[in-house]
Amino acid sequence: MIPPQTRGQRGNGSAALGGTHPAGRSLSSRWTTEWRQLKKNAELILLLLPGALYTLVFHYLPLVGIIIAFKSYRYDLGIFGSEWVGLKNFEFFFASETAWRITRNTILYNAGFIVFTTATALAFAIMLNEIGRRWVKAYQTVLFLPHFLSWVVVGYIVLAFLDHESGYLNRLLMLVGMNPQNWFYESSFWPYILNTTNLWKTVGFATLIYYAGIIGINSEYYEAARIDGASKLQMIRRITIPLLTPLIAILFILAVGNMFRGDFGLHYFVPNNSGLIYSTTDVVDTYVYRALRTLGDVSMAAAVSFFQSIVGFVLVLGANTIIKKINEENALW
């Protein structure tokens, strides 16, 4: 039986659920109340189940494997039977000669990707909004198509352009009287090549997101500005960019969270894993892969992945804090 006071609180909606329970309320009455709430929201809970199960299985259960980073993992002993080694697996990564190089490459490349992709996608989205609706789908398809290509395919496309003997780019250089280049032997070219390749593959998807944000802006703002005699550039500066700022801020925070996580496909398949250009193409993920392939050290790989996740978490918190100080409304929380 539900006490009269409890029934009164239930009538007040969420206040009853989040509020303090009466001192004399029994455990059984609480379960009865909760069960009635579950039955009341059964359809919503049913819709929630697939997402909750996916998150539990693929995002929370694997967290148990984090302890491998603190153990000397042996296949015969398993995760829980292997010996604890503390932070030795982390020391292996930080003590390696390439730690600084791959950390620098990972952060700088991701910073470049965020800046170039955001700026270019915004420009393309604004241009798409200005051209006639008739051609929008054609431009969208051309921009979006590279997004569906795997990095293996993109690697072969890049090879077709940069191959020393038969690449299109070297043929073009010879046509204009210049010497061909060994692109896969010269590390200085690769910051430009990787940034360009990543931009070509990802800008279509980012453009689509910003374009969706632009067409969601109330057209009355533009009509009022047009009546006041505002030019196209003024409308972009005073209406489009400010109203897109929250979307840009959210995507920026999410991108910063992956700033210490290099794209393995981009940095492995596109440079063709050429050892002569590791100084400018190697990132944390490709280094871990090579270390696993040659050493087979699962604990070290887990330690680096754990370190990447911690740094990504700290970066998300930092980016959100900075954005919150600039404009609280644009922050994620």
UniProtKB/TrEMBL annotation:
It is found in: Cell membrane. Residues 103-319 form the ABC transmembrane type-1 domain. Residues 1-28 are annotated as: Disordered. Gene3D superfamilies: MetI-like (1.10.3720.10). The chain crosses the membrane at residues 44-70, 107-129, 141-162, 199-218, 239-260, 300-323. GO terms for cellular component: plasma membrane. It comes from the Bacteria. It is a multi-pass membrane protein. It comes from Xylanibacillus composti. CDD domains: TM_PBP2. GO terms for biological process: transmembrane transport. Belongs to the binding-protein-dependent transport system permease family. This is Sugar ABC transporter permease. Pfam families: BPD_transp_1. Keywords: Cell membrane, Membrane, Transmembrane, Transmembrane helix, Transport.
